[in-house]
Amino acid sequence: MAPPSVLENCLEDSNSETYPDINWEDIGFSLVPTDYMYVMKCAKGEKFSHGNLIRYGTFEVSPAAGILNYGQGIFEGLKAYRTEEGSILLFRPEENALRMKAGADRLCMTSPSVEQFINAVKETVLANKRWVPPAGRGTLYLRPLLMGTGAALGVGPSTEYTFLIYCSPVSNYHKGSLNFKVEEKLYRAISGFSGTGGIKSVTNYAPVYPATTEAKAEGFSDVLFLDAATGKHIEEGSACNMFVVKGNAICTPTTDGAILPGITRKSVIAIALDLGYQVTERGVTVEEMLVADELFCTGTAVVVNNIASVTYKNTKIEYKTGAETVAQKLRKTLLGIQTGTIEDRKGWTVRVL
């Protein structure tokens, strides 16, 4: 049974244009609890139908739930942007919905339809619209989750699935210049399509903690993982796609099953082609990265960011940074489309308010 709805109270609260009493400049990328979350459930073999907005908070789940015992769960991440005129926009939410479905199919889970996903995101944003930061001062980050919540002791697909969306206002994911360390001992994903590196499975993230914890203790911003098959090609950061720039050419590792098909990545490729750059998706060797002019990362959280340096085998390689770099030109265009200051000629944005 779905949790009781508080939709009427939610709509009354969401009519308020009063911002919460917080300092937008201090929020960073950490959880700030908001007012409402969205919950929808369905049984195995059935389809999702109707969900509800409920007050943000904890919810009960069986200790025998598939998400807790066998990691049957996936998540997404997207943002709501406030324009200078006060409107609220989403950026390519249908891509998040399709990626969630691909992940759900891989893990034998029932997923919401694209329409259900987008409508749920819209409802969540409207219910929490006072938490969408003013233009230029942050975004509302939305975290859709799909979890096996049915109780079962044996290994197998869950008997019940829960789709949940919560949100938090955020600003920059990283502060200051980015300095990465190449990880040579641990691997993020199995090479090829036999693993789960290409979906946002919840099981993909905790295994990188030893590498990232060690790197951050050494003063690095993040780690850069190599392919598990040869250890000769770059793949991803802990939560971002990678691009190398040499002259007018931009290369990024192909999404071959081990690398997440990032929506920001996909959008940056399209923007770069429109701006006249030569873009190639293929295997990128460590040696090629070491002689690049620029190195940058992309993702919903990081947006588009220059990487100032990479340390490989105790040797630090530095790259171009600053306003005139390719990365910053791409970032400016992307953010302009997302926030409505540049005309969206591709139909990427969805207006919520």
Plain-language structure description:
The protein has 353 residues and is α+β, with helices and mostly antiparallel strands. The protein folds into 2 domains: 22-170, D-amino Acid Aminotransferase, Chain A, domain 1; 178-337, D-amino Acid Aminotransferase, Chain A, domain 2 (Alpha-Beta Barrel). It has 8 helices and 17 strands. The protein has helices spanning 7-14, 66-69, 93-106, 114-127, 209-217, 263-274, 286-290, 326-339, and strands at residues 36-43, 52-55, 73-75, 78-82, 88-91, 139-148, 160-170, 179-183, 222-225, 241-246, 249-252, 278-281, 294-299, 303-306, 309-312, 315-318, 349-351. The strands form 3 sheets. Strands 1, 2, 3, 4, 5, 6, 7 and 17 form an 8-stranded antiparallel beta sheet that branches. Strands 12-11-10-13-14 form a 5-stranded mixed beta sheet, covered by helices on one side. Helix 3 (93-106) packs across helix 4 (114-127) and helix 6 (263-274) packs across helix 8. The mean pLDDT is 95.
